[in-house]
Queue: 3 jobs
Job 1
Amino acid sequence: MPDLVTTFEQNALAAAAGVWRCERSPLAVRKAVERAAADARGIVLCDAEFLPPPLLAGLRGLAGVIPRPEDEQLATADVGVSEAFAGVASTGSVCVAMGRPLVAATSLLMPLHIVLLPAERIVERPRDLFDPKCLKGEGLRRNLIFITGPSATADMGPLVLGVHGPHRLHILLLE
Amino acid sequence: MADANLRPAPVQGPRALANKSDRGNLLRAIRMALDIESPAVRLNTQTFNSNRYRATALLPDYDGLKDEARRIKEKSIASLPELVQTLKSSIRSRGGHVCVANSAEDACRYILDVCRWRGAKLVVKGKSITSEEIRLNPVLEAEGIEVVESDLAEFILQVADEQPSHIIAPAVHYSRERITELFKRKFQTKVPLDSGEALTKFARDLLREKFLYADVGITGANLLAADTGTLMQVESEGNIRMASFLPPVHIAVAGVEKIIPTRREMVPFLELLAASGTGQNLAAYTSFLSPPLEDPPFALPGKALKPREFHLVLVDNGRMQMREDSVLRETLYCIRCSACLNSCANFQTVGGHAFGGETYSGGIGGAWEAGTGKLENARFSELCTGCSRCVNQCPVRIDIPWLNENLGERLNHAAEASPLGNMLGAASGTAPNDRSSSVSKIFFGNYHYFAKWGSRLAPVSNAIAGTKRGRLAMEHWFGLDRRRTLAPFPKETLVQAARKLEVKEQKSPSAKVVLFAEVFTNYGAVARGLATLKILRALGANVVLSEALPEGRAALSQGMIATAKSQARRAAAELEPYVHGGRDVVVIEPSSLAMFRRDFDHLLDNKILFQILRASSFEPVEYVVKLLAKTGREPRSVFDIGRSPVGRRLFFHAHCQQKTIGSALPTEALLRQVGFDVTTSNVECCGMAGSFGYKKDFYELSMAVGADLFAQAAKKEKDSAPRALIASGTSCTEQLQAGMKRPVMHPVELLAAILKS
């Protein structure tokens, strides 16, 4: 039996997401985001809720980061960075919890969505997040979105990745 | 001026043919779909279908999830009025608004009022089939509000002015090439638009502007949780998220049947819906939102900042009445996944513009159209052949063929009886209230009666049926297509032939069997019956034959349920003493066997007798496998492949209903154990489906469905030598013979031929 992290990785890749394992240090996170968002003109960050804030502190200094984005800038930015509430191994999904400022926008409006996922928040199946004992039962109370790969359509004939939502989903798996 | 008569008749588009209360529309729509839409529908639905098989196989507790989902839906519909109240207070306590709309008009009026009140000029919509049902767009547009469909499939339909052809992929009938042609024509653009990517980018750029400036977003919901006011929304494109999040006002439109008690109970549906629908582990986005959202609404310069507002419009529109209807109530369990559409051979071939009405399509579509509109609109449910391939695919275990058989009955009863129908009905023993069915239905539904007389009058009956004039008459009166070959009626039926056989007395038989003399074998395929007797007796079984009786399959397939019930009762009464005497029932024709295993549950009041018959009835090869195991004999000690009259290479096509009841695999396995090189078809149904393909109105469709099977049979031979064609069903045999122009053998005939003496 492969472990949860490996299963997650395989299924996320199968759903056309990109997965990069990343060391849990401010420097490593900064480097990983910098690499993923290379050439970005506008990067929008949202604050940490589940990860320690210092881990993301380095991101503020990246070129292209918009400090306090207006809605107009959200509409034209090209990278959104948010953190995941959880990951789901069996489907390769990241689950994002709504509520904090910019979470909805960064996970939806920009062509590239970079999402930080702590490995210990990976559960086996989607249903686990509806268990009151799992992650303090928060999954039952929050507005949640299971995101499985980039937005996609088969309506125009062949499968096309990238429709209204992000064209690329880039998962930074924090070990 | 050119003579109007010389101009070719205009081809009627899907919209003009959507209303199937006129049967002519059904036939014209089939032709239109075969001519234009079939290739795209086939490719897309068959891709969904194979993906579904893969995805559901990956769910370790697939059957458990189905049971759980079914339980939750049953419970929810039972307590629906209370759930509506709970949901109302949950949403109101969060600051949202709820409207319970009795009719489509009420729902549209409420939405229009909200839009007017908020001064809305631009509305963006996420995909919502329920909004199609209530015909929302024209109502808003008449008030000068711009309505933009943002799901790309719905966008295509809006541009083309067509109704959905599929419940989750509404433009499933459009190939990439046809979309390119449509967009170029409608948008007068010079952009090449010659790839899926280019088309998607074109539509996305156009729609992104609309999202950013929309005043109101309208979406549907896949499920609603009463306790928390949570909406579950499933999508791939992100447009539903946008429509729920970007505009200040979000209106969700949902059928009232979407409510379940708690958010926690959404769990089994989460994986089931994605796996059963598009065949994914999960769609790109599955949202659980309890609106109104906390996030401030999106405000671009020039757009006034307004507070968030949420309205839920719960649509009744006939659903509460469906709840009171013992048959249509099942429809309310539907979670609109589309598995029944994608697993249906007829649907795969014509799609929902033929096999569908104004809004809903496919196997479950007829019941939705009848329940939310008029019964007559469900006339397309005639395209459900009862093949039952959808039955095991439905995540909430709805017996969809049974729904359609009931719609058939209601349509039969709503018709005027004809003198000929009355006469034939009385002669053939059709139940009095089924005699208003069409003459064609009375003929096909009482095939046993005509077969009995055909066989009594053979060879005269065969001579008449063999003449051109005879066939024209049958086509005219019974709708029996003259292009179909008819197997001659035997002078001697199976029951008569079996009486003449010498049977050795067995002191201790390996098993006691009654071979049910169903219509198709008794009057059509006597050789199969004799082969079965020969094998079972060679294996030491004591076999007797039942009286020749219809078990109700033919009548049921024509919606003649009262007739089917009385035939089922009689067949069950005939078999009951045999079964109590310790005999197993062997039934050669799979559609007949499926009656004992499945349909009798609906037809017999005596449920214990149904359970007994279900447990003791077998397909012949299935029974041979059981006997071999019981007597501890190796297949090769009984059968010698060296004697095969058709070589070692086989192409085996199992019957649709045989696959549903799980009795196809034993044949495949035994043939392999005996030493045959077996390849199998993987089509859902051959297209003949009992009497369906014999009907003049459906001949072309039936052959178009069969084309997949013929192509598979031909492909399996491409590599080297030919393969002998083997099929387990009577009508599959006819279909395969018609398509391949070669004889087809039944597995028992092959096995009887290679029996060691």
Job 2
Amino acid sequence: MTASEKNLSRRNFIKLSGMTGAALTLGIYSTASGKSMELITAAEAETSGVELNAWISIDSAGKVTIINHRAEMGQGSFQAVPQIIAEELEVDLNDVKIIFGVGNEKKYGSQITGGSSTVRGSYKHLGQMGASAREMLKEAAAKKWGVDKSTCYAENGQIIHKPSGKKLGYGELVADASKLELPKDIPLKKSSEYKILRKPMPRQDTPMKTNGTAMFGLDKKLPGMLYAVVERNPRFLGKVKSFDDAEAKKVPGVKHVIKVKMAVFSTTREGVAVVADNLWSAMQGRKALKVEWDDSGFPYNDTTQLYAKMEEDLKTKEGLSYRTMGDVNRVLSKAEKKVEAVYSTPYESHASMEPLTCTANVTADSCEIWGPIQAPGWVQDDLMNVLSMPREKITVNMTFLGGGFGRKAFTDYTQEAALISKEIKGPVQVVWTREDDTTQGPFRPGMMYKVEAALNPNGRIAAYKFKMAGQNMDHQWPGAEKDAYNGSTTEGFLEPYFERLPHYSFADIPLDSPIPVMWWRSVYSSTNGFAFESFMDELAVAAGKDSMEYRKMFLGGKDRYMALIDKLEQVSGWKSKGKNEGYGVAITECFSSIVGEVVKVSKRPEGGVKIDKVWAVMDCGWYVNPDIIKAQVEGSIIMALGAATKHATTFKDGKAVEQNFNTYKMPRIQDTPEIEVFNMDNEEPAGGVGEPGLPPFTPALTNAIFDLTGKRIRTLPFDLEKV
Amino acid sequence: MAKYTLQINDKSYTVEADPKMPLLWAIRDLAGLTGTKYGCGIAQCGACTVHLNGNAIRSCSIPVSAAASGKIATIEGLSDDNTHVVQQAWIQEQVPQCGYCQSGQIMSAVALLKKNSQPTDKDIDTAMQGNICRCGTYPRIRKAIKTASKMMVAKASTK
């Protein structure tokens, strides 16, 4: 990068945050090896020639700007990231301006927002940044006063000299501080010293989301921007044979009708885009478009057929081995007491409230992207390739996301928009209708499971054999080995269980299908969890033991797990449940967090079952904001409720059947049970918060229904009113 | 194409539109008020909820020609600075997660509370069942409506 390009990007940053004059700016840069991240000041960066990374900046007016490098899709990273920095920096969150970082993985490190990784992946670096800035300001003040640094402390955006009470605001110190050497490895505060961490600080984005000012992807407007909607192939892989745009072009406002494409894993999807000067006209134009598809050369899948294949595979194949111990088949063949079950979970759409959209402005030598994007770095990688442009020429801006759940970490919709903009030689906003969003995928893969176990007379498990059948997301990438095992086969299973199983085997049988699949909230745990924890319950029943007590048999000595299960037992009143009440428990772990849930159900007078209450205990180790955690677990439970009892994506003749919310039915306010969330307080490393609350809900629910009615539900979704 | 003068939040917006254009797009793209959202286009999700003559309607399913003669209120018109009691309650209870459905949720809640300042759980179910929230903020929406109700009652009693 030339000196002028470097300065230009710094100037852009200053413009972006509205700073004036001197500033103390600290960021992180990648070391030459690219393997680690180091703190650096702006001054140092200029002289040593590394690319300036700015995460925090304090200007001469004392205004603090913090950049949120991760996507905000509701999970609270917009709040958590600044909260961590502000704690160490000793500023009031209300005095801090938060802006979205532009996509730049070299600057900010990984910006992929997924796997519940934002806090747990960066909290130590973020803390160090805040602490380093604070120490530099302290040193600047001490120098100015001619006193020892140890006599000064930071509070509320000021440095105070303890003996005399002298104060200086950060704004008055930044010019001097920015010239100092950056201190590293400053000991961070102990959790007992936290002023804002671990507190339910109100979210900074809440006011914007209650008055309509928060900008989502569809709200972005660029001068001269056109709007596009795309007619895509309902069977995913079909090619455009021909199209008749005569009627479409007659719609007032329609400017272009063009053939388009986008890469989805190893396939190229074709479509026809109608581009107009307003969205409504584009939609009307598309209705008048006639497209002839060539749908030859690939199978048309039906849900019945897919599940029949998975069931057959589970019966006849051993699968690709992921994790084994001992000789599970031998022990099973000789066992006197065996339990066996087959579980079935459906394909699901992500169904974010905001449908997919992307705004792109591609010129001869640059590309600007705006949109609800979970992985700006990946979008850049993709567009560098597709547009043959260097990284510095591709700017990827994240707006607020109206939900993501994994779908918006993909680069298909962004590529499509960029290619349309390139073709029409102007800025364009591509909007997916709800029908497009619900039927085009990629989807959460539907999975089937077969679990078998041999029980000892005392109820302990002598052998445990787990097989999962269904599509492996990883097999879709170009060059992927179709006989590679699924690395997520045990995702969701409690780690201590492995130690207590003398013989076990976990394997998967991949299903080959053109249906595109990808990460959905909590990924494979969302379906694995149902199998693992339903089966655990079936074993408890077979062993004649209480479900909670049964799990304790395998968690003895594992303090963290025992503390969670004790808490769960206590808050749910498990031991004192009444007659005509069904209680079910499930405990899963994913993304380094452990979550246990208890569901209470009772019979409805008009038939069926209702959910009375859900208790959840979350152990995510080190945490930032307990209220955000509570909100994430509540939301995860309601999302699981939908997948368990309301909606599924089915396929007929190769096409997704459910198109909109009239057939893909979402849980609504009247379906929501009372939910109570508890957070374990410990110093374990930070685990994920956005997703781990989802997997335990469904098995806890079906276990509760078994407890109440004796009916075992193994196929999802099911109708609560028909139980 | 026809000319319409829309009364939105006590302001006039003169627009030219296809008479069949849903009010939603007239509000978002012609009047430039993007607080009202597109979620499904078939009146199933409530993200597009606005008020027409004081009643909550799904703007995606009413043509601009039918709405032109009425008084339209959108999220932007509730207050200048989040001072509407429902917005205050929403902030106090920390309702939004992604926030995309919230304009519609709030407009439905405002309409409910205007007609019934002390709704029961069943009243809330009935009034709010048309508004989907994928992030699952329903427990907080319910709590916020009750908080707004309390705030309204308290305000009324100090008059």
Job 3
Amino acid sequence: MIKKGNLHRVFLFLLMALVISGLCFAGGKKEEKAAAPEEPKGTGKVTVMAVWGGQELEVFREMLKPFEERTGYKVEYEGTRDLDAILTTRVEAGNPPDIAGLPGPGKMAQFAAEGKLVDLSTVLDMERIKADYAQGWIDLGTVDGKLVGLFTKAAIKGLIWYRPDQKEKLGFAIPESWDQLISISKNISDKGVAPWAIGLESGAASGWVGTDWLENIFLKTHGPEKYEAWYKGEIPWTSGEVRRVWQEWGKIVADEKMIYGGKQYVLSTNFGQAHAPLFADPPQAIFHHQATFIVGFIQDQFPDLKPGENYTFFKFPYVNSKWAKSVEAAGDVFGMFNKTPEAVALMNYLSTPEAQAYWVSGTGALSPNRNVSLVFYPDEITKEAAKILKESEMVVFDASDMMPGEMNNAFWSAVMDYVENPANLDSILERLEKVRKEAY
Amino acid sequence: MLIQRVFLSILAVVAVPAVLVVYMFLSEKGLIKSKRKSFTDRIRPLLWLLPALLLISGILIYPVINTVVLSFMSANSTEFVGLKNFAYIFAEKEMLIVLRNNALWVVFFTLLTVTLGLLIAVLTDRVKYESVAKAFIFLPMAISFVAAGVIWKFMYEFRPIGTPQIGTVNAILTGLISDFKPQAWLSNRSQNNWALIIVGVWMWTGFAMVILSAALKGIPYQLVEAARIDGANEFNIFFRIILPLMKNTVVVVTTTLVINVLKIFDIVYVMTNGNLGTEVIANRMYKEMFTYRNFGRASALAVLLLVVIIPVMLINIRRLKEGGARG
């Protein structure tokens, strides 16, 4: 019997040794790399995880240079397009990055409720933050009275892009109201040109472009308070209020004459190329609905076009004039998982106007920090958009991003299903309602 | 921190083998000392097996049991919900589409891949440029699923009528057939599942072909010759002699493909992400797990896959054994 007990212990030890060896092989290598360069000042490092790649990442690296030089800290960046899955897994495994872009305010609230996020008011200079940020942005990053998320860059959603030369040629005025927009669109389609260029495809997130449409129509129909109730799951999808929003959008997207290429094109075209028909010769479409960041995509594809001159935007028209001044925005929100001195320093740096000016001038993003001077904005349209954001009275956040993951996903898919067959609206809304009951 | 890790690494590299050696040494010593020979003979294999068994239970058996347990629990695994997760899988309309898609994949992907593989194996067997032809068919196997998905997404690209078609498939079809309307292959419900299955077939035909071709080469030439002398035509030779002799290999290839296709994920994930009625079980499992954080349903789907795959796997193993015994 005693022998057997010993044996057990041996095996247990053996198993543990194996597990431990696995663990330290996984971690051991990294350590060597980080410890090698001996910096004269600080030698600490801070790990950051976000979705950036390409140009955004270059700008981020530029932004970090002065920080790294000043402090001597090293920033280790890990980029992933599948942030939600990877970050959640890392957090659950007890191995989160020090600072991470959060997949959305919904996920932020979840992490905060689980106590994973550091209260930023204990690490940031709150007086400066309050001077720099509009209360709205602070509120958006606050969960249960704790500031857990800091917005570092922003975009305005619900802008309608067009070419000034086409406006002159077709002779339309900038529409103030939704009805005007619809009637202008009808006039254009009567002339044999498709008024709208829409593309909903976006890999795993296909359909989000449509949620932006619906959110803007909802906001401009029912106002910010209802809007909040909607993403909080307090309004049934099958209610008349929600249904009306879909039907309004249907005036455009359910009418094959209103959309370039018909519904199959809308469903299978990537959002990043959807603006292309506007710039064909002759133009195949007149309007394109997208957030401010589309400027980057247009610049990539048509480097000769001048923003503000060859193309520009107008604000999403109101359905109810009461809500004409409301604006939908989205942004990258950052949270802190480990309160190390290095992470604290970086978080403070990221919130400064100095750091955010990099985003603004490098990527055409907007800064939620109101002390970033307008001179940093690279062109007239981003300046204009920044002004809208600064002056807006009612800023709301992207509703689908605020919904729980399951709801958000179902919303995306529902957009695809609706465009495919608008006659199915009833069953689509019923399905969404079912998810709402489960997800909240 | 660093010292600790270095210490642990050394511990792992040196200590683990050392412990194993000491364990073996001690157990053998104990066994040799023991007087009862029949007992030591019985216990010895067990002692040698034990470390491996422990490892397997730690990394294989325990996760399986845990998954089964989780499949009866709620989304966050805190309360027992009985068969609710399974009821969801078999009752929800959306899930039924998922199951239907998997059935489509299993039947048509397997059928097409095996048939094409067999056909190509038999046909190339008779030509001089066999190796070149086979190399081309086998080439897609070397590409990752994700890359293949991306490639085929370009192939299926859709542009409205009247504009230049940049997707290969539409470009060829509109070029050859004058009144052909370009199709959005991946978003049109009547054809998107087929479009995805074709990608799978394109990737796996090479695999089926190589194995079947090897089996074909193993059939003694005398048999075929004898049949010819007896007056059998080529058709009869294939169906009455070659195919029966290859039966085991065909079954093994088929079951292997079935197991693979039941778990199909990458192609769907990359190309449509399950939108517009193309979702499959593995894709849904990923979503339930990582997007919805519903551990219960994700585990239930995993269990479902496991239950479906086990019988196929058993057939596969049995055939493999038989084949081995004969060969």
